[in-house]
């Protein structure tokens, strides 16, 4: 008993002494700051003070002071560094408003300056991590793709690293750990080994180890745990700004998990002691959640089920993430089953089932809300674009007026000289005639050698000119004024219809170019199949003629909630192109969309059938070739079916024309059932 009291007293004395030393360090640094006026020296002191208060509200005060002073002194690198650290801090403190503010501030700062630094990409990575934690996967995916495109445009390795890390975290969230590990590993390999990137490398290694442990790739996990330990020690020696207590706590938690999987139970108490020594200085709830989850697995492995249950309950109390609660619920149910408490285990299984169902419902609601917000943003952007176009037209009108006026003055000035030039022009006329003959021969030769290109340009000229003439013509009528409201609405409707037509023509050309060159990155996810089909029919029904019936036939054995792993936008584009073609050529009868499952072949067969004019036998072999049009009097680029073929093949299927069907036209394509 006396020995225990002695040890406790010694620990209390050490803690008091350490706290006193830290307070003296704080006071000393603040005193130096008050007496320093050189900006760079003040920046160093502010960073040191912020590091002492790491992961606390007081750290925010010193980082904000650093951000303001660096902006005043136009040290933009230090300014962006402080914004990055504030984003990291509020991410750890789970302050959503502040995370959003500093992430958007960083984005607007870079767009305004045209400078996309490493700090910008690191800040956006932190923002994406927060989005994933809050289940905003679609927004996080869009941001990751935007980061990737920006990084490519500015040739930034840091940007590529951050976009890879974002994609890795998204795949981790949806359970694709092997893909996530590949993204993590690629990011680690690309990241340059510099002092400025040591903190980010530690984060990448931490995430990579987590993926490897989830996959139970223990050999690689052990290798990277050792690398992480050496890396943190190296950072500590070089005095790199980093949350060391949190880093060490995570490191030894990984060692506990690895030792549990490898059944090296004798080493774990030492690791637990290491974690407990750093835990008092860590405020991130996730760290304690992960630590207690690993302890639960450890105690379950050594047969201490009661202690394991306490650890599970403690971990559950520290997370609101449904997926984590689901995994912990399964672990708890397994422990209860081992104890023979089958009734309690059944109750726990029922609870985790309810959690899973609620998670699916909540995610669906959030996705619908996010799509609605994106739609509103697009509408607002469309209005802004229209205003900008109107301003551009006004500017062009003024320029044309000045040009006409200048031409008129020039004509008056040079008119008196015309008679003198006529004689010279007559002499040159014969020479010009000879030149024209030579030019004509050269043009004919060029046109013959480039006939396919000229034909395409001619078609596009016709296809673009038709809606463009309508837009310009009716726009001029609107400008004249004195038009009835009904007529004005009709003219505006015509202008909008022709604008949509023109936009579709250009989109077809751009889509074909992107997909054929394989520069377009497909975004695969699970989507409700029937919902996708109904969305297509809803968007296309306005183009169906009154005398034509549009129908949708599903496989009778299909679950209405069946989710297809596909790129939703491109899958729907194929259906819209096929049904849109059917609408153009079907005057009477019906247009039908149907699908059927072939579980043995693991395929879904989709078909679009109509009672239209059909395709002549001599043209059936050419319909999937580019720029092929069966009816030159119908609007289109001749690229629709070529685009469908490219998309279907990229989705892993095939597309063909059903030559046995003779009452119109029937296109069939396949799509893999599973990933």
From TrEMBL:
It comes from the Bacteria. The keyword Cytoplasm does not apply. CDD domains: HisKA (cd00082). The keyword Membrane applies. Residues 1-19 form the signal peptide. Residues 459-675 form the Histidine kinase domain. This is histidine kinase. The lineage of its organism: Bacteria, Pseudomonadati, Bacteroidota, Bacteroidia, Bacteroidales. It catalyses: ATP + protein L-histidine = ADP + protein N-phospho-L-histidine. Pfam families: HATPase_c, HisKA. It comes from Parabacteroides hominis.
């Amino acid at each position: 008993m006396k020995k225990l009291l002695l040890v406790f007293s010694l620990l209390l004395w050490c803690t008091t002494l350490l706290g006193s030393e830290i307070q003296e360090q704080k006071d000393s640094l603040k005193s130096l700051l008050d007496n320093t006026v050189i900006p760079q020296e003040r920046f160093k002191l502010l960073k040191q003070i912020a590091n002492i208060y790491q992961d606390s509200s007081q750290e925010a005060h010193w980082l904000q002071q650093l951000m303001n002073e660096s902006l005043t002194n136009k040290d933009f690198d230090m300014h962006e560094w402080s914004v990055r650290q504030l984003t990291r801090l509020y991410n750890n403190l789970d302050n959503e408003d502040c995370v959003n503010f500093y992430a958007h501030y960083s984005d607007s700062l870079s767009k305004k300056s045209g400078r996309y630094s490493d700090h910008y990409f690191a800040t956006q990575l932190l923002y994406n991590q927060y989005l994933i934690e809050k289940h905003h996967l679609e927004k996080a995916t869009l941001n990751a793709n935007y980061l990737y495109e920006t990084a490519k445009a500015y040739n930034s390795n840091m940007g590529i690293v951050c976009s890879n890390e974002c994609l890795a975290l998204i795949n981790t969230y949806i359970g694709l750990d092997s893909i996530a590990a590949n993204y993590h590993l690629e990011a680690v390999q690309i990241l340059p080994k510099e002092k400025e990137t040591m903190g980010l490398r530690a984060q990448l290694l931490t995430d990579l180890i987590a993926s490897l442990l989830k996959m139970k790739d223990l050999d690689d996990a052990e290798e990277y745990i050792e690398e992480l330990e050496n890396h943190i020690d190296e950072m500590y020696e070089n005095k790199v700004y980093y949350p060391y207590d949190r880093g060490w706590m995570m490191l030894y938690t990984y060692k506990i998990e690895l030792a549990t999987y490898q059944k090296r139970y004798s080493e774990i108490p030492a690791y637990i002691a290491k974690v407990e020594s750093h835990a008092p200085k860590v405020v991130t709830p996730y760290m304690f959640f992960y630590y207690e989850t690993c302890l639960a697995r450890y105690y379950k492995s050594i047969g201490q089920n009661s202690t394991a249950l306490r650890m599970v309950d403690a971990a559950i109390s520290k997370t609101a993430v449904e997926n984590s609660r689901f995994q912990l619920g399964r672990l708890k149910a397994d422990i209860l089953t081992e104890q023979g408490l089958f009734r309690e285990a059944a109750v726990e299984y029922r609870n985790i089932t309810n959690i899973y169902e609620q998670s699916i419902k909540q995610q669906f609601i959030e996705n619908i809300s996010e799509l609605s917000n994106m739609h509103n943003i697009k509408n607002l952007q469309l209005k802004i674009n229209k205003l900008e176009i109107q301003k551009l037209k006004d500017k062009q009108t003024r320029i044309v007026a000045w040009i006409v006026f200048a031409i008129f003055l020039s004509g008056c000035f040079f008119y008196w000289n015309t008679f003198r030039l006529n004689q010279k022009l007559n002499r040159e006329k014969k020479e010009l005639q000879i030149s024209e003959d030579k030019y004509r021969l050269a043009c004919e030769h060029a046109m013959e050698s480039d006939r396919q290109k000229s034909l395409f340009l001619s078609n596009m000229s016709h296809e673009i000119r038709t809606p463009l003439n309508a837009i310009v013509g009716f726009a001029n009528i609107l400008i004249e004024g004195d038009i009835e409201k009904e007529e004005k609405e009709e003219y505006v409707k015509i202008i909008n219809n022709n604008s949509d037509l023109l936009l579709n023509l250009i989109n077809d050309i751009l889509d074909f170019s992107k997909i054929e060159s394989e520069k377009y990155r497909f975004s695969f996810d699970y989507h409700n199949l029937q919902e996708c089909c109904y969305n297509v029919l809803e968007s296309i029904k306005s183009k169906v003629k009154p005398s034509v019936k549009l129908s949708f036939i599903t496989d009778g054995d299909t679950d209405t909630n069946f989710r297809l792993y596909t790129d939703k936008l491109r899958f729907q584009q194929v259906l819209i192109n096929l049904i849109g073609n059917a609408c153009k050529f079907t005057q009477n009868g019906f247009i039908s969309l149907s699908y059927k499952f072939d579980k043995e072949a693991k395929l879904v067969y989709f078909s679009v059938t109509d009672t239209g004019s059909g395709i002549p036998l001599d043209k059936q072999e050419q319909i999937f070739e580019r720029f092929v049009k069966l009816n030159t009097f119908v609007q289109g680029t001749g690229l629709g079916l070529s685009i469908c073929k490219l998309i279907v093949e990229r989705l892993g299927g095939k597309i063909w024309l059903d030559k046995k069907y003779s009452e119109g036209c029937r296109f069939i394509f396949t799509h893999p059932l599973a990933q």
